[in-house]
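[INFO] parsing input record for 2-dehydropantoate 2-reductase
[DEBUG] input buffer:
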Amino acid sequence: MTMCSNISGNKPHVIVIGAGGVGVIAALSLFHCNKTEVSLVVRSDYDHVKVHGYKISSCDYGDLEGWKPHHLYKNVEHAIKDDPKRFYQYVLVTTKNIPDGPFQSRVPEIIRPIMENNLTYHIDKKCNILLIQNGIEIESDILTTFNKTTYNYNILSGIQIIGSTKIDKGVINQQGHEHLSVGSFDSSDQDSILAAKNFISYYLNEGFNSIEFDERVRYSRWKKLLYNAAINTTTALVGLDVPRALEFGKDKKSTEFGIFRPAMKEIVRIAEAEGIILEDKFIDFFVNCTRDLLFKPSMCVDVQKHQLMEIEVILGNPIKLAKKYGVETPVLEMLYNLLILVQCKLKEEKGLIVFDEKISRLIDH
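[DEBUG] output buffer:
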């Protein structure tokens, strides 16, 4: 099936930043709903997709050949230069959140051209930044960088459950049905809550995808961390899919009872310290939900692709909160310290850090 664009000048504009398996399906869902004009920042695959479009195999939308959203851009600067007076009512960020990565790839710097352009042309309009990303405390960098009164924006949380992967240049394979929850990081901000609910009306395709309003954003993010902080991290360290990580453990038990469950219990205790109760049933659920799937979580895939991992938002931030609350986290800290070594190995490969072998020391830039 081939889908072509259908632009209406009266529709609100949405820009999706990040064209991996998550971002492309998000753009497709918006496009299919046909209530917004959709721009997609493609970056590395831009030249290919501009000519050929996307080849998508989707359990929700079927097989698509040559699909494109209304607008394609190589980066955010390209989008602003193309039409400086276009106002993006929603800015969806679906890139990896790596605050310890290169400065220009950090989320505040990625969206900065839009925020600065709004000051010039759209200061009377409120922009909505929707972070469809992993981790806890991910909104802090944006709130610190951009004063909300000056820049006039809402900041929204998106948690997407989906099995979607970019398997080749311009090729997306979606095997798991999409479920997206959207809410306001600030549960008392009525304007942000309304913006989240409006977005749901732009995104929902009955019979295709699933989207719901999340009134407990902090709870949802802690809950998802149960899986990411324990299982995502461990598989990245050992380079195994989840079933192998479980089965290869001593007596088929040591991975589950020596790593996964203890790490999850530490997340439960950190969340509890700030008044959020995660029921024990979620530990059982997350330990078992991918036990029978030959599935490699995102951090494991990142390492195998020699890409930086989201270790700060998944482990670093929870550990900082644990220290603040006086919660002991020996398992999480061991995983974190080991992953820092792997992250630095990746950074050295990319030339982001330099190790001087003559003196056997890391050189500070």
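[INFO] Confidence is low (pLDDT under 50) at residues 1-8.
[INFO] shutting down worker
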